Amino acid sequence: MDATTRTPARPAAVSGAPDGQRALAALGAGFLESLTSHDPGKARLAPSFRATENLREVPVGAGLWETAEDFLGLLTFIDPAQSQLVHLGVAVAGGHRPFALRVKAEGGLLTEAETILGSDVKGHFADVDQLLKPDIIYGAPVPPDRASDRDGLLRVADSYWRGLQESDGSLVPVGYRCDRYDNGKKITNTLTTLLSPDAAVHTVASCLNATRGARPRVRGRRFPVLDVAHGVAVSLAVADFHPVPSSPRPDSGSFYVVAVFKVVDQEIRIIDEIREIMPLGTPCAWSGE
């Protein structure tokens, strides 16, 4: 691996209130170390610990415990109020893979680990190597007069899933400078999209409007991180997209997504998504189904 592009497996940006942040960060770092060393004993796991990878149950010692080599370009988001932490970045496991991890703790032990490991690494909706240099915008504090409280962050983030389910981008408060990134790839306001079979200039709103033919249904939406100081909401959901034979890119299935929203002035400033397409109707596997 080129040493000039390698970043250490530690947060590029950490969010959340100070209380409990260090303990959660240490638990998350210990979990990553246990994966790369292939030694579950290096993670502080509760007796009730449960893990999934791409919505499939994973026994302790299996999955990434067997294949992980490193984690690069990590963004880390922490919500001590919910005792949850989310990582986004790149997993090195037989190559670079888009990666997201949610962990939950209780009593100083990890009780849950939920991983998305993307298989789409390069193409119209993916560019995994762009995840090696994460945007610093998520670590920027939001001035109090431009910030949302926790309920406000949840409402704005949830409006995105409502807009998707209704195929109506007008339901989502999107800022003038907002763009969306999927598995590292910028998919809005790009020449790549204009010259593609879509032949359209995508905005966040038009991306949602264009899903109508697929009759999207959003399931299992959850919000493990709501960070008022940095205006960050992290959400997970499963979105069912039905086949659209006439589409130039007839992707269908259950899109398993973690989305990070930066919210300023009650509007979304940027969206980063890590996703994997699962067979249509795949159960959510976590609460919120």
Characteristic key phrases:
6-stranded mixed sheet; alpha+beta; single chain; 289 residues; 7-stranded mixed sheet; Nuclear Transport Factor 2, Chain: A; 37% strand; disordered N terminus
Walk me through the structure.
The relative contact order is 0.16. This protein has 289 residues and is an alpha+beta fold. It has two domains: 124 residues, Nuclear Transport Factor 2, Chain: A; 139 residues, Nuclear Transport Factor 2, Chain: A, CATH 3.10.450. The N terminus is likely disordered. It has five helices and 15 strands.
Distance between the termini: 40 Å
Low-confidence stretches: 1-12
The strand line-up of the biggest sheet is 1-4-5-6-7-2-3
Give a count of the beta strands, DSSP E runs of length 2 or more: 15
Main CATH class of the largest domain: Alpha Beta
Secondary-structure-based class equals alpha+beta
**What spatial form do the alpha-carbon principal axes imply?**
globular
Remind me, CATH topology of the largest domain?
Answer: Nuclear Transport Factor 2, Chain: A
If you average the pLDDT, what whole number results? 91
Oligomer: single chain
Helices and strands in order, then pairings?
Blueprint: E1 14-15, H1 21-36, E2 45-53, E3 56-57, H2 64-67, E4 70-79, E5 84-92, E6 96-106, E7 109-117, E8 122-123, E9 126-127, H3 150-166, E10 180-182, E11 185-186, H4 191-194, H5 204-209, E12 217-227, E13 232-241, E14 253-264, E15 267-278
